[in-house]
Automatic annotation (TrEMBL):
<dbReference type="GO" id="GO:0042147">
    <property type="term" value="P:retrograde transport, endosome to Golgi"/>
</dbReference>
<keyword id="KW-1133">Transmembrane helix</keyword>
<dbReference type="GO" id="GO:0005768">
    <property type="term" value="C:endosome"/>
</dbReference>
<feature type="transmembrane region" description="Helical">
    <location>
        <begin position="12"/>
        <end position="32"/>
    </location>
</feature>
<dbReference type="GO" id="GO:0045332">
    <property type="term" value="P:phospholipid translocation"/>
</dbReference>
<dbReference type="Pfam" id="PF04193">
    <property type="entry name" value="PQ-loop"/>
</dbReference>
<dbReference type="InterPro" id="IPR052241">
    <property type="entry name" value="SLC66/Scramblase_ANY1"/>
</dbReference>
<feature type="transmembrane region" description="Helical">
    <location>
        <begin position="143"/>
        <end position="164"/>
    </location>
</feature>
<keyword id="KW-0472">Membrane</keyword>
<feature type="transmembrane region" description="Helical">
    <location>
        <begin position="44"/>
        <end position="66"/>
    </location>
</feature>
<keyword id="KW-0812">Transmembrane</keyword>
<protein>
    <recommendedName>
        <fullName>Solute carrier family 66 member 2</fullName>
    </recommendedName>
</protein>
<feature type="transmembrane region" description="Helical">
    <location>
        <begin position="171"/>
        <end position="190"/>
    </location>
</feature>
<feature type="transmembrane region" description="Helical">
    <location>
        <begin position="72"/>
        <end position="89"/>
    </location>
</feature>
<feature type="transmembrane region" description="Helical">
    <location>
        <begin position="110"/>
        <end position="131"/>
    </location>
</feature>
<dbReference type="GO" id="GO:0005829">
    <property type="term" value="C:cytosol"/>
</dbReference>
<dbReference type="GO" id="GO:0005802">
    <property type="term" value="C:trans-Golgi network"/>
</dbReference>
Amino acid sequence: MDLIPLEDMFVISLTVLTKGLIIFGGSLAYVFQYKKIYERQDASGFSLFVCLTLLIANILRIMFWFGKRFELALVAQSIVMLISMILMLEISVRTNRKYVYKTQRASYIIYVEVLGLFALLSEACLGFPQLKQNCSRRSTSGMSVGMVLVWMVGDCGKIAYFIYENSPAQFWLCGIIQITIDLLIMLQVYCFGKSGARSRVQLPQTDD
């Protein structure tokens, strides 16, 4: 078995080290911040907008990779950063919740409820772009009916689960919206399919 030359081993080690720093280096700073929040049980000194900025930036970077491939280490860096920001959000929100003043309690509760509603509404509108596109085209050709049926079955299952687990109202409310959109899409399949079939019927030609 041939030994790897010392020079090549040095280059490989340097490459691995460099990629490791690229992947984990950016998130390393937040280990110290996480530790400080954990020790003090107070996240008031850390801005959550840092998390928001990095979450958006790294999600967009991953989307960019699908359109134009670049170094995988940079994709891995984004994934690690997303995980880091989720952890930072979790500990920050959990600790900040303990220090909400009584005078701010009502506002905080409203904020949380509205936040949950908007978060779930974004998922509830999953089928809306498809519904709108079908309306614009006046056709459902090219759209998989099976996909919509799976959506519907999944949404029905989710609502049953939400009710069984007594989940917050936002969950089953948004589930109802999802099922409504699914039903409207299936109605489009029926209506546009029927009108399309009529348009394909050729009238018999009559001689002058």
